[in-house]
Amino acid sequence: MTEQEIKELFARSQALLEGHFLLSSGLHSPRYLQCALVLADPPKAESLGRALAALCPERPDLVLSPAMGGLIIGHEVGRALGVKAYFTEREEGAMTLRRGFALEPGQKVAVIEDVITTGLSSGEVIELVRRLGARPIAALSIFNRSSQAPSIGVPVRSLLKLEIPTYETGSCPLCREGVALVKPGSRKRQQPC
Ligand code: ZN
Predict the structure, then answer these.
(1) Which of these, 59, 112, 128, 168, is most buried using a 10 Å CB contact count?
(2) Rounded to the nearest 5 degrees, what angle is found at the Cα of 27, between the Cα atoms of 29 and 161?
(3) CA of 26 to the centre of ligand 1 (A)
């Protein structure tokens, strides 16, 4: 898949919008990204999984994703590579393996996310993999929102680099231009502030 094809795929599913958006954080942004809207379509998720699997520097023994965001795409990368797809969950804030998932010493593990922003979640999963005696080999994501490559000790690869600027209400250039503010997922347009 080319970068253009991926952008079009997301745009068609209303998962990547351009405009003036009120994010759930309360910040404003000229872009809105919601990977779940594309990944909800199994054939599309499968295609993205295949494309992402191709970025893996070597074949892992399994893939591991932080839930929830990484879960579906991790599963599809696992399908493409023919390996198991485990996921991590937070327990009292700490990244953990539950549900009987276990790593064996020396196992090669690729960490999969939908969006990498600061690299924090992937970094925590990588730390967990090391702590359990396995070997992280790469961190892969559909989108990379970080302005600089996160330094998490493994190659970081993404299908698409995408900047998503965010603004406080008072300093939003789109508000200043009077562009109507839209809350993604709702049809109602809000008054520009
Ligand atoms: Zn604004």
Answers:
(1) 112
(2) 40
(3) 10
